[in-house]
Amino acid sequence: MPSREDVSYFGAGPAPLPTSVLEEASKVLLNYNDMGIGIAEISHRSPEANKVLADTKHALISLLDIPEDYEILFLQGGGSGEFSAAVYHMVSIWVEKCRKRLETEIEQEVATKRLRKKVMEGLKLDYLVTGSWSLKASQEAARLVGAEHVNIALDARKDNDGKFGKIPAEDQWSLTPTKREDGQGPAMVYYCDNETVDGVEFPSFPASLESKSENDDRLVVADMSSNFISRKVDVRKYAVIFGGAQKNIGNTGITIIILRKSLLPPQSELASPQLLRSLGLPIGPVVLDWPTIAKNNSLYNTLPIFDVWVAGRVMQGLNNTYQAKKILGQEGISQKKSDMIYGVLDKYPNVYKVVPDKSVRSRMNICVRIHGADPEKEKEFLDGASKSNLLGLKGHRSVGGVRVSNYNAVPIPAVEKLTEYLESYARKSANT
Ligand SMILES: Cc1ncc(COP(=O)(O)O)c(C=O)c1O
């Protein structure tokens, strides 16, 4: 039976966690702060739990340099829960803005009729669909508000034989204009910064989503579930960033949201449930309601404090390791590890074919086919890897192949073992 030290694990999420954090976790699960009870047993409203929450927030703020005008929320429901939460919230803001504008212009009754018309004709949520997760998010939006309100500003499959793997040039995207006649742009523009299944990552923030002025703000919502805290991010460019913890941050159980405070009351007003109902628009469950969660310091309902603690220890560990460099320190290591892996893959083009285009290769999820996606060869590769204690390399069930997940807790020695295996498999294949 292999020990933890023997195994190199490249799972896509849940993913490896730093051993030092798990060792400490095993102690605090039994006895937290010499209280005689474990961290998973204490009340989420106790002073100890409050400190865990504050420390974890602080570690994230420090690591990513999050500006003061952003709120951090911890929720449950995973990244998938946020697919829905984003729609509920951003639609509600859009409708309220629209209502206010109409009501200042005309009397109430006429305004309600016009509002219905404006919503029917003008409510748009823009999605950049570059992989399976942004596709799912857009499908959830269509389920909630109707496909007629979802503008697929980009479907990356169209340019790539029906498959994900490229991000077409921005001049080919069809974003809803921000300066429309009625004065209201899209309720949001949504994208997934790193597509875990397809191995596609945006190289940088898309230029066409940059705000040109205060009024022309596109309200960008980004799913960073699988590349959170792996590179420097200019938080100010985003209205919302969210991600499940179970890849780069911690164990499964919490989702982290970084949200511009101006999108919360009192700065942003929200449509009333009655109004949304009368317009046939959905009202989300209270546990996904960002204003409610914010008002209650993420403690509206029982927050899994142990999960928050793990995330905090992981992030504090990065702060301690990289000191003043902060997230740039991790960015350098992530780049180095992914360069090592792609370097070997590119050396043997007859054996390995990286799935996505070079311009959008993910540093986090490296998707590759072996010998032209021959199922027997891919099985042989995975079996051999497994015998060498290189685990978690099977591609997502929807696409197959091989996927190396290169998250923060994968150490360089694990990547070295993997590259040695990639080399030896390729050489052996060339001789057979
Ligand atoms: C990029 C991305 N977004 C969203 C999700 C969904 O997350 P969850 O399973 O936590 O709902 C995943 C899951 O792997 C993901 O990789």
From TrEMBL:
One Pfam family hit: Aminotran_5
Cross-referenced InterPro entries: Aminotrans_V_dom, Pser_aminoTfrase, PyrdxlP-dep_Trfase, PyrdxlP-dep_Trfase_major, PyrdxlP-dep_Trfase_small
Enzyme Commission number: 2.6.1.52
GO molecular function terms noted in the UniProt entry: O-phospho-L-serine:2-oxoglutarate aminotransferase activity; pyridoxal phosphate binding
GO terms classed as biological process: L-serine biosynthetic process
PANTHER family: PHOSPHOSERINE AMINOTRANSFERASE (PTHR43247:SF1)
Family recorded in the similarity comment: Belongs to the class-V pyridoxal-phosphate-dependent aminotransferase family. SerC subfamily.
Name used for this protein in its record: phosphoserine transaminase
